[in-house]
Amino acid sequence: MAETIDEPDYGLGFLRALWWPIRDRDKFYPLHATKKYNFLNWISDAQKVYHYTNTEALIGIVSDHGFWMTHHAYLNDYSEYLHGKEMAIDVLNALLKKDRFSKFSEIIEGTVENLANSDDLAYYITSFTRERDSLEQWRAYGKTGGINIELDAQGHGGDVGMAPDLMFHKVIYEDKEKVESSIFWVRRFFIEYNIDRKVVGPIIGDDAEDWIQHLSSRLRYTFTSFKHSAFKEENEVRIIVPESFKDRFVKSHYRAKSGAIVEYLKTNEYSKLLPGNSEAIPKASPLSIKSIIVGPQPERKMVAQSVGAFMRENGYPNVEIEFSKAPYRSI
Length: 331
What we know:
By secondary structure, the chain is α+β, with helices and mostly antiparallel strands.
């Protein structure tokens, strides 16, 4: 549905590119509300998301009312992030060859240099899926008290799914969509850049650097959701928090993994306050857990009974406990 927007703040086009609705002739449409741009990677249509884990982790999730978001360099698919960066740079270099982007070339060239040569910012990620009963996921958790937590994606319980910082984003698997999403953001910036240039004049020096930094950040945020098409069946959904938002959380936490010390944040420690605000951190509200599916495993009835009792004792009396129908056997 089209919407009415206020007169823009000229000179801040990079902010309009990030947050303003999509321009279509003389109308504007919310970024998530058009099928034409269905490759955009935020979730607006998912009523439910799922988190596969085990009973040990469930205790922490329920006790904290939140999830851990791990530094992206320590995730198993970090190579996908590097591949995504290379793909974004290839897209930018291809656009540089097009005449229509000639007056935007300084910004594109600066963005290529920024992505290629600057140290990558950290991103903190926690993963979900839209698959309720996945055989592949149970293979990973089925031997260790595997369970699947069903969340109402639009319930925003415990701040999970809350815009703008803890939104759900779908992972992009197909190369075509990866390219389209990269081009989309470059075009967004290009359109707003031309508007600013016509109204306020040439964009040079520090002003040009602002455009480069914001476009670079937006593209990094986008390709953090890229993953190889071989993993498409995972149907993954992520919450992604950039390093620049880390001060909106109470503190960093650390754990040991394979000899390394891994940094992570907790969604329940998101302050909902702008940096520098000294007000008390609100207590996290309960998560919008609808059910817990117990995976195929030995003694699953006992697991289900213990999970149900734990949930009732910890403020979740109405959570349904169900069993997976997946035909997997623990070995």
